[in-house]
Design a protein that fits this description.
single chain, about 425 residues, alpha+beta, Cytochrome Bc1 Complex, Chain D, domain 2, three-stranded mixed sheet, two-stranded antiparallel sheet, about 10% strand, disordered N terminus, binds heme C
């Protein structure tokens, strides 16, 4: 398939303007104080040492149509303002959010168990804010789920960043099963993972919302990874078997939630509220997912009634209809054309779509539509044309349907990905 690239309006160029870089860097440096220092380090020397790699490139977001943004997928209620600064999560100098600060020593050191695991960890271990090797902590409840030993980059973060790094496993969990506010690299084709890391590194892939601090951190981590670290991380995550962990429920009413760390967390209050034009993805068990950070935690995605049927039409035939014996083209193209008939992805580098977090998928569709996410794969341009006309409601329907689809066990060698 040869795209007529010449006819395609390429989206937004990501400009690495010197002044913008300095501004972004100053912003997080000014906003955050320094938290964990290596022996002999001063706050100034630590920030200086990390600066070349942790500098966020300025991104031109002036052409993004935020009126179409599925805000729920960002865990936001209002679109970003034009002067919102590019935030960075856990940059060197950032204060560690020490949720242990108010705990009694007894609570802090009490051993806890995650459902299904034989291991026991205390909150002091789970949220080890002073991890002596740096990198944020990776709690490994299920070592049998992944190859061992875990590569250093996954356990401690890119070596070039030393104690300023963040471990891949601290956000994406030990096996890459991931969470709605980041991504699930587990079981993706290795070629696709490698390409994404390189695309982040070369500033081709951004979030359309500057407030998405963890995506900016992801970009900076990719910029500091060596080729060997990328290869190790890609092989590691690709070899984990994907365990679907989202249950999709159609409903008019959802439990009351509050937004914490980009996520909808049930408040436990009586009553319910209308779902409106949103998908509300919540942890099935706040203790397992949030407190213990179990990689076996599951999620419920509440979706509007009717979303699955409408999503199916768009995903399976692009919304094409037969009216009075005439074919009327739909607003999009059947996703299976490129993502495989079963939507399980196609090696070497087309990602699977089924059984994944609707919040993650929706952010990607909007980011690709608005040109904030580009890529070195020439088919990204085609992907952009495919999603060009989708409304915020179409994105709800499509992601609801994709997430609800079952992921068969990898039964035969024909399955190109391990999902
Ligand atoms: C601070 C949290 C954080 C850390 C640490 C982190 N990531 Fe990410 N990662 C993210 C976020 C957030 C996204 C993109 C989500 C978005 O923009 O919607 C992402 C996306 C990805 C993707 C793209 C997945 C896809 O389906 O396209 C890959 C691959 C990935 N990360 C690998 C890694 C590796 C390897 C490391 C370790 C070097 C790492 N991540 C460390 C937060 C993190
Ligand atoms: C012309 C081929 C093509 C078609 C048709 C297509 N896609 Fe894609 N899609 C791709 C490619 C290639 C990528 C990987 C882009 C990259 O490397 O960054 C992709 C990536 C994605 C991603 C990001 C996944 C991730 O892990 O980050 C989503 C979500 C997605 N497509 C959804 C869809 C949906 C929904 C449809 C149908 C409405 C669709 N695609 C139709 C080619 C296509």
């Amino acid at each position: 398939m040869k795209p007529r690239i010449g006819t395609i309006v390429v989206g937004i160029a990501c400009l690495a303007l010197g002044a913008g870089i300095q501004r972004a860097y100053d912003t997080w440096q000014a906003q955050f104080g320094r938290a964990v220092l290596a022996p002999g380090e001063t706050p100034e020397s630590a920030v200086k040492a990390a600066a070349p790699i942790w500098t966020a490139a300025a991104v031109d977001r002036s052409k993004i149509n935020y009126s179409n943004q599925p805000l729920w997928a960002w865990g936001e209620t209002e679109p970003p303002k034009s002067d919102d600064k590019q935030a960075v999560q856990g940059a060197p100098g950032a204060p560690v959010n020490n949720r242990n600060a108010n705990l009694t020593p007894e609570e802090l050191n009490r051993k806890r168990r995650a459902d299904g695991s034989n291991l026991a960890f205390s909150l002091a271990e789970i949220r080890n804010v002073d991890n002596p090797t740096g990198g944020g902590n990776v709690v490994d409840w299920f070592p049998d789920d992944h190859p061992n030993p875990m590569p250093n980059v996954v356990r401690y973060g890119p070596a070039a960043l030393g104690k300023n790094g963040r471990a891949c496993g601290s956000c994406h969990l030990s096996d890459g099963s991931g969470r709605p506010e980041n991504a699930s690299p587990a079981g993706l084709p290795a070629g696709y993972i490698l390409r994404q890391l390189n695309d982040f590194k070369s500033d081709l892939r951004h979030s359309s919302d500057a407030r998405k601090a963890n995506t900016n951190t992801m970009i900076m981590l990719a910029k500091s990874m060596s080729d060997e670290e990328m290869k190790q991380a890609a092989e590691y995550f690709a070899s984990v078997r994907w365990r679907p962990h989202v249950r999709v429920v159609e409903t008019n009413l959802v439990p009351k939630t509050q937004i914490q760390g980009e996520l909808f967390i049930p408040t436990g209050e009586e009553g319910a509220e209308p779902i409106g034009n949103r998908i509300i993805e919540v942890p099935t068990d706040v203790e397992q997912n949030q407190v213990l950070r179990s990689s076996h935690g599951t999620w419920i995605a509440y979706v509007p009634v009717g979303a699955l049927r409408k999503g199916k039409e768009l995903v399976t035939n692009g919304g094409m209809k037969v009216v009075k014996g005439q074919i009327v083209q739909g607003k999009t193209t059947a996703c299976g054309t490129c993502h495989g008939e079963d939507l399980l992805g196609v090696a070497p580098d087309v990602p699977p779509l089924v059984g994944r977090s609707p919040s993650y998928l929706a952010r990607q569709i909007f980011d690709i539509q608005q040109g904030a996410r580009n890529g070195s794969n020439s088919n990204v341009t085609l992907m952009r044309m495919v999603v060009d006309k989708l409304t915020a409601e179409d994105i709800i329907n499509i992601t609801a349907y994709l997430s609800s689809r079952p992921v068969p066990p990898p039964a035969s060698s024909q399955l190109l990905t391990r999902r």
